[in-house]
Write a structure and sequence with these properties.
single chain, 142 residues, 72% helix, 6 helices, mainly alpha
Length: 142
C-alpha cells in the first residue's frame, strides 16, 4: 500500500496556491482577492483569509495525493480531472452561489467560469510534478 508523501503534498499545495494567485493577478489584476474575500466575509481579517486560502490549497493537495492512484487517466491528466471536479462541485455549485455570484459566478461576470477554470489549472501544475505514485505497481495489484 502506497502512503502519501506529506512533504511533497504540502509543498505542492503551497506552490499550487501561489500559481493560482498569480493566475488570478494576470487574469483579473487583483492580488490575493480570495484571501481578502475570506477575511471580509468571515469578519476575521486578512491574515485569517491568507491562512484559510493557503490551508485550503494544502488540504486539497493532500486529498489529491490520497486519491490520485484511484483516478482515471495518465499522470498528467489526473490532477486536471481532480481540480476540475473540485472546482465544479465546490466553487461553481457551492461557493460562488453562496456569495451571490450565481452558478459558476456567471451573475458576477460572464468570464468567471473561464477565470476560475484557468486558475485551477495553474494550481494543478505542481500536483502533476510533485505527487508521485507508481502506476505500474497500482495496475499490477488490480
Amino acid at each position: 500500500m502506497k502512503t502519501i508523501n506529506w512533504k511533497n503534498a504540502i509543498i505542492a499545495g503551497i506552490i499550487g496556491t501561489i500559481l493560482f494567485d498569480l493566475a488570478g493577478l494576470l487574469l483579473t489584476g487583483n492580488w490575493w482577492d480570495i484571501p481578502s474575500l475570506l477575511g471580509e466575509k468571515t469578519g476575521l481579517g486578512f491574515a485569517y483569509g491568507i491562512g484559510g486560502h493557503y490551508g485550503n490549497g494544502i488540504l486539497l493537495a493532500i486529498l489529491y495525493a490520497g486519491l490520485a492512484p484511484s483516478l482515471w487517466g495518465p499522470k498528467w491528466l489526473r490532477p486536471i480531472i481532480f481540480v476540475t471536479a473540485e472546482m465544479v462541485a465546490l466553487v461553481w455549485l457551492f461557493m460562488l452561489p453562496l456569495l451571490g455570484a450565481g452558478v459558476a459566478g456567471i451573475d458576477a461576470s460572464p468570464m468567471m467560469p473561464l477565470i476560475t477554470f484557468l486558475r485551477h489549472l495553474a494550481y494543478a501544475v505542481p500536483l502533476i510534478f510533485m505527487i508521485s505514485y507508481n502506476l505500474k505497481e497500482i495496475k499490477s495489484k488490480q
